[in-house]
Each structure stands twice: as structure tokens, then as C-alpha cells.
Amino acid sequence: MSTPDQRINELREELNRHNHAYYVENSPVISDYDYDMMMKELEKLEKEHPELDDPLSPSHRVGSDITKGFIQVAHERPMLSLGNTYSIEEVDEWVERCNDSLGNSGGLRSVPIVGEMKFDGTSISLMYENGRLVRAVTRGDGVKGDDVTENIKTIRSIPLTLQGNDYPKSFEIRGEIVLPWKAFDRLNEERAFNEEPLFANPRNAAAGTLKMQNSAEVSRRGLDAYFYYLLSDELPCDNHYDNMMLARKWGFKVSHLMTLLHSINEVDAFIKRLDVERKELPVATDGLVFKVNNLRQQLNLGYTAKSPRWAIAYKFAAERALTRLRFVSFEVGRMGVITPVANLEPVLLSGTIVKRASLHNEDIVKNLDIHDHDMLYVEKGGEIIPKITGVDIAAREEGAQRIKFITHCPDCGTSLIRIPGEASWLCPNKYGCRPQIIGRLEHYVGRHAMDIEGVGEENAALLYEAGLVKDIADFYTLRNSELEKLERVGPRTAQRITDGVEASKSVPFERVVYSLSIPFVGETVARKLARGVGNIDALMTMSHDELTAIDDIGPKIADAIIEYFAVPGNRQIIERLREAGVQMSMPQTDMSGYTDILAGKTIVISGVFEKYSREEYKAMIEKNGGKNAGSISKKTTFVLAGENMGPSKLEKARSLGVPIIYENQFLEMLREE
Ligand code: AMP
Ligand code: ZN
Known about the structure:
673 residues; Helix Hairpins; D-amino Acid Aminotransferase, Chain A, domain 1; CATH 2.40.50.140; 6 domains; 24 helices
């Protein structure tokens, strides 16, 4: 056993390290729960041994999110932290304590308490003068924060000017900037495509996004904001709840789950109800916050050094399990990035069996300090992806070796390289390394790329192994007869594959650019490039300066494009795709006519048409954001049918309940908007 002195130092060091990972790097390596437990242990020891206290101990700080590159502004009123607990009993005790301190001995009835969601994002303070937003500042270290007004202005749910006329002339409103689940998933999908490190959770993504220097990018990412506290010398009401209801009228997003509670029973029932309902919310929450409603009572209860006594956070513990590491595998991605993966003894967690969890990169493996056969904590918060949050060191086998990162590609044996300043190792053997080749094929047929129905991601590997497809241009040489010879491929599947390949020829140029697997060219960049350059020949010959002149194309992307087209094999692939009939330029038609009326819709064209040709209809679908597919499936949104639609297609559509839309209805649909 260590002495209290040693333990206190250990805890302070650990907590400082985690504070840095959390606030500065936006990539925590331990769970909130473990962090909170460590903090509680430290607070308890410091209380028991006042002689060991230190004003610089992490227990006395609010943690800091100050970032260089932003101007710092002092808060008019400090932004404090909240006392927190994971236990309902402690919430009940807090309610009792508030009642006692306020001299309320009214039996079952408590002083009014407001229950609200604890949104899991990053806190913000907004200042309004005469109904106009004048400044937005992050919490920072609680005393001063970063001025992020420009970025905040891009968040559409934040009112820049207020509605009504009953707001105070000058006030501050505090809330939480969040990245909704949908936007978070989209962002990580994009980062996965670029093999950039993923954000661990929406909170880190929100915090990271708010601190970006490019507010156009901030705008694109889709942040949102919820507000939960109003401060002013001239508040309209004498209680928190009514003030928030007014703030909602002025235009602020205030959660409808905010509820007035009048007894411990109501508080407990609120906790039970919200622990279920929060799973349906569009944004991440990590608990609930309870606040004494009456402002005079808040004042009477006052503050500790770190947090108000009139509020408490109840945190939901993420479900976690302990299981043994079988081994760490190293997987090679499409761009050559090596990802370490923990292969685990299967364990049940939040209703699913977990066998694998990504360890992301070498730094994370190092930080966790994983050894062979360690017992690992696996956690699933709101996130769907399981995460390793710690090691049970006591259970470590004697003589177990620390996990070493590999030095050579597990597949092709090439020596790995690490790009300076990045966390990941790469296999540089782009064109000879099997998982990279298959990865590119899978990407090409994927739903967001050429969407070749029938091939699907699993079949891409099969076609490669069979020697039928070695690069993306080979898809266009596939014949039914040769496909049918494959195991597991019958005539129907073969037909679906060749139909899908055929349909991919009308996929617009911008998605073709995305499908090529040029490093850093994700969906958005591909769209910008395609619209900026117009056709493949221009793209292939553009100089670095010409490329970076395009909106949002930086030097890193420009380098990647030039490097890609400098490879003779890649240029040959482009020529073969062009010969096959793949779109290599933006359509000649007026590009301003683009809409997204058909966005997200997959449409199958069948039959002979009167008003326009099949090709014209295909172009119309693409132009309005829809996708053409070769054959009818559950994913088909509707069939655009002309005369003489084939009877088998008609039957298929009926049996799957896919609607059939005729020419005139379709044209009507496009006109409507
Ligand atoms: P903590 O960071 O764990 O000390 O928790 C305090 C933080 O919770 C505050 O700084 C806010 O950013 C955040 N928070 C989220 N929802 C609420 C809410 N409804 N009321 C107060 N704070 C909230
Ligand atoms: Zn390799």
C-alpha cells in the first residue's frame, strides 16, 4: 500500500495527464467514470489530510479548454463546474440538504427543483445587448475563455437577433454546443474514409469543431446548441424555470424535457424516466442536472470554490465489462493505414456480444499500456462502437509482455512508415498490398461511391480472389458467363452484378471522383473538385496552384491529387473507365438547375418512354440528387415506369411493395418544388 502522500501525488499526476488528453487533445483515454472516481478519491484524501493540500491540485481547477489562436475574454461571472454523482441516493441527499439549509421542513414537499438533461457537448456563454448577439466565449478555465463568436454565428439554431421585446437590455445566456448523433456519424464516416483519427464521441467532436479556424468548415459540420441558464442584473422572473421558458420565446433552443419537480419521489421518477427516454434523443447526454428553481434560494445556498451548491449533476454510468485480451491484430486499410484491434474473449455488453474493439493507433496502445492477455475494460456509452477504456493491472499475468506495435506490414511485409505529425503508421506499398487493393475495390462499389448493387462490399474481395477484378476498371469487363462459374453466384446474382455495373455508368462525375480513392478526397472534396474543374482531363493536368485556388482545396489535398495522377497505372485505369463509358465530366446542361428533390432516393427505370429518352430520365434523376439502380430491391424507392415494363419487374415491385411512378407523375414531382 502506498502512503496517502504517495497516493495523492499519483492521483494528481494521473488527473493532470487526463485533463490534458481531454481538454487539449480532445481525445480522452479513460472513461468519465474512472476520471470522476479518481477525482473523488483525491478530494477525499485531501480532505482527510489538509496538510497535503495544494492550491494547484487538479481538484481545485475547472479544467481548461483555452486554445492558442483565439482571443481570450474574461467572463463577467465565472463559469463553474457542477458537483456530480452516479448515485440516486446522493441526489436524494442533496435535495434533503437543500431543504434543510433553506429551513424547509415541509415534509413530503420539497423546495421546487428543476430537472433537466445534461447535454454532452462543450459549454458556451453568449452575451446579448439590445436583443443582438455580441459575443460568444467558451468556458476556458472558468475565469476566462476563448472568443469563438465567428464560429458560433454559423450555428443556425442560435438566434443572432431576438424575438419579442421582453428580454433584458443586457444579459448572458449559457448553454451547451453539441454535435447531433447524425452529424457526428457523418463526420466520422468521412474521417474513416480519409483514414483520419475518429472522434471518440460527440462531445470531443463538438469541442474540436468549435475551435476550428475555418468557420465555413464549422458551418458544414452541423453543430447545434441547447440553453440552460440565464444571467442578468435585470432578470424578468424570480425563478430559473420561468426565465428559461421566456428564453425559448426569444428564440433559444430550450429542451422540452426541462421539468419542475416538487418532491424526492418526483426527482427519482424523473431519473428513471429520462434514463430510458434519453436513448431516443438526437443528441448525446451524459446525465441529468437538478437545480433549485427559486433564484433567491439559489443565492442563499451559494457556491463552493468549484461549483454551485444549488445544483447537482446525476451522471449515467456507461455500461462496461471486463474481459480478457486474446491478441492484438493489425489491420491494413484502403489508404494503407495500420489499425491495431483488440480481439477479446466474447463478452455481453448493452445487449450485444463484443469480440473486437479498435485501439485506433499506436499512441492509444501506449497510453493504455496493454500487455499480453490483459484483462480489459470495454465500454459502450451512447456510442455504438465498443471502446477499451482501461486495464485491470492487478489481473496481469506474471511476465506478460507489453504489446509492441509492428514494424512491417502484416500482409505484404513492407517496412511501415509514420508520417510526421500524424498518429498512424502506413504501409507504403499502395499498389501491391492486397488489403489496400481490395479496400479500393470495396470503396468503388460502395453505396456512397458508384453504388454497384449486386457486388456489395463482401463480393469485391471474392471477385479479386477469383482473379476477375484486379482494379476498378475490371468491373466493366465482367460477363455473366464467367460470374456464374463462381461459387455462391447463380444466374440471378450474376445478372444483378452486370446490371449494377451498367447502371454505374450514369453515376455523375463528382461521385466518380470520390470513387477513385484519392487520399483525402472525401465526398465533399470530390464534389468541390468536380464542379471546380469540370472534367477529368483538367483534373489530371492541373498544377498545385491551380488546385489550391479551388474553394476548400488545401496543399495536402493538392499534393495527393498530383501524386495520384502521376502514377502511370492510375492514368491507365482512368482511360479504361472512360472507354467503358463512365462519366468523366460534368454534364453540359446548366449546372444551376441542380436540386436535391430526389436526394436519398434510389430509382429503377423500366420500359419505354414518350416524353424523354431513358438516358435523359437517368440524367434527370442524377441531376436532382437521386440514384439510378439496375434492379429492383428492398432499397428501391420507386420504379419510374414507361410503356411495356417487363412483367417480372412488375411482379418484383409488387411483391416488395415498391411504388410504380409513371412518366407524367415523375415530371410533376420535379416541377412541384
Ligand atoms: P462537468 O463538466 O462534469 O463539471 O459538468 C458541468 C458542465 O455540464 C457545465 O459546464 C455544462 O457545460 C454542462 N451542462 C450540460 N447540460 C447542462 C445543464 N442542463 N445545466 C448545467 N450545465 C449543463
Ligand atoms: Zn502492405
